[in-house]
Design goal:
CATH class: Alpha Beta
Distance between the termini: 23 Å
Largest sheet: 4 strands, antiparallel
Shape: globular
CATH architecture: Alpha-Beta Barrel
CATH topology: Aconitase, domain 4
Strand content: 15-25%
Number of strands: 8
Length: 172
């Protein structure tokens, strides 16, 4: 897992982006990130994977990820090439589901008004630092807790637990 994200592919969204907008319910027949990613935000954008090009960042206002409590939404973001989402606030279940599947989120007050399309961002996930290189400004996000960083590095909760069990000789 990279803890430093360098992106000039920034998508700026508003408030209350729900999981049905992230991945429409008609595509929930799979949990394959690549398949879900091909349909990520399709009711909002023409082609998010092309926009992200493997190193994109989504910036949003408040309550990102509201709605249904399913892991498909963060899996779709992974499959679309999004490296992280930075928002002023997240829906609680989306926040936890994201880390459970190994997808990083940063909570950052004021981010929605500090970033625009085409801005270049340097994001340090561990330090909780967001630098807008284009505007020569820096914002402090809430640092990701060490346990959550462990989950990200492991690729999510299930790989994290499996590694712990293997280390104790309990799983193969």
């Amino acid at each position: 897992m990279k803890t430093l994200v360098d992106s000039s592919n920034v998508l700026v969204l508003g408030d209350n982006i729900d999981t049905d907008l992230i991945i429409p319910a008609r595509h929930l027949l799979t949990t394959d990130p690549a398949e879900l990613g091909a349909h990520c935000f399709e009711d909002l954008l023409d082609d998010l994977p092309s926009l992200m090009r493997g190193n994109g960042v989504i910036v949003a206002s408040n309550n990102f990820g509201s709605g249904s409590s399913r892991e498909h939404a963060p899996l779709a973001l992974i499959g679309a090439g999004v490296q992280c989402v930075i928002a002023q606030s997240f829906a609680r279940i989306f926040f936890r589901n994201s880390f459970n599947v190994g997808f990083p989120l940063l909570t950052c007050a004021g981010i929605a008004s500090a970033v625009g399309k085409g801005d270049r961002l340097l994001v340090d996930l561990e330090a909780g630092a967001v630098e807008n290189v284009s505007r020569k400004s820096k914002l402090a996000a809430q640092p990701i807790a060490p346990f959550m960083i462990e989950l990200l590095r492991a690729g999510g909760l299930i790989p994290h637990v499996a590694a712990k069990l293997r280390a104790r000789g309990g799983a193969r």
